[in-house]
Fold this protein.
Amino acid sequence: MTVSANNQLEANSSRNGALSALSAYILWGFAPIYFKLLTEISAGEILMHRVIWSTVFLLLMIIAMKKWSQLVSVFRQPKILLQLSLSASFLAVNWFLFIWAVNNDHLLDASLGYYINPLFNVLLGMIFFQERLRRNQLIAVGLALTGVIVQLVVLGTLPIISLALASTFAIYGLLRKKLPINSFIGLFIESILMLPIALLYWTFFVESSTSDMLQNTGSLNFILIMAGVVTTAPLLFFTAAAKRLTLSTLGFFQYLGPSIMFLLATFYYQETMQTAELITFIFIWAALILYSLDSIRKRA
């Protein structure tokens, strides 16, 4: 294969990765609208439905795409299954925190968390993939850290929800990037690994009036089942992007989702924001602007 052919393949891979990342973060940005339809249902019960219906949705996709041989191959590799168990754990925690934040009027905290996440990606890329940080990238990370410290000093508390969302999803992205498996297959196995816990929770621990789907309205059951699509579609785009882009490049796209969340929280759901929280956002925005300009300059 010629050098030009190799370059074309790399360009196509990067372009596909960019489109996948763009799709993932737009879908994530508008996801709170869906979860706000379920505010009367606990975060744990919604998470249960996310796991169950994601598994069903992915199973149908695997059947349609005839990926059984790849699936069987992964099940014969205990080491990969163990790594997927770990990534599934971080994914489940991230899902729960996000649902809880949205349905308890902490969408601004969720937005801040996903603003911080790209900078976590940058740090993880530096630590695990030897992705060297340029001077402006280091300054951007410093600005983000300053923003968090401002909130700690003024309010006396860390933005725990934001930091937890950022760190769990950054680690999930890191773990999935290191796994040499198809994104569909990996996400399906993660869902299968979470499925027994979800079914046990449904059987023995959920006592709400909505836990019996036979007693629910058709519209509510439809919304609950759609959790599979709402959950799976952006994650599939994300895992596809993570395979094709560096962590630092992936971080470039990630502020699209939290920007949509921020606008929804501020202008549509009208959540209140303290001055210290606004200052934190300003520092994070400044960090992302600097990081983005540095990335654009590097590509030019």
Q: What stands out?
A: The radius of gyration is 20 Å. The chain has one domain: 28-299. The chain has a mean pLDDT of 87. Residues 28-299 form one domain.
